[in-house]
Write a structure and sequence with these properties.
Elements (H helix, E strand, L loop, with lengths): L37 E4 L10 E8 L5 E6 L1 H13 L9 H6 L1
Antiparallel strand pairs: 1-2, 2-3
Length: 100
């Protein structure tokens, strides 16, 4: 697996302004189970930002839950990766699939 490198901002470019949404409350969407994607509108959209995101609640390997936001392209790319590598996609136990 490739290591993630921090991107550095060159001295000639201005750093992106801090988000104005830091203290804002998130959108209220119909709650779903872990793994249900919901479309949310980007509330404090920058000029090059996506108009909407796919939001998902996920449980990390350490047991903590977190919210994740993806663009449509990121979801498409992940779906293509899963289709290309089916051996790496975890199987779902029958009972989980049955009650889903």
């Amino acid at each position: 697996m490739k290591s993630l490198k921090k991107k550095t901002v060159s001295k000639t470019k201005k750093a992106a302004p801090k988000s104005k949404a830091k203290d804002k409350q998130g959108q209220t969407v119909k709650s779903g189970r872990l793994g249900d994607l919901k479309i949310v509108i980007n509330q404090d959209r920058g000029s090059t930002a996506s108009a909407e995101y796919y939001a998902i609640r996920a449980q990390l390997p350490d047991g903590k839950e977190t919210a994740l936001l993806f663009t449509a392209k990121e979801i498409e790319k992940a779906a293509q990766r899963a289709a290309k590598n089916p051996e790496d996609v975890p199987s779902v136990p029958f009972l989980f699939d049955f009650f889903d």
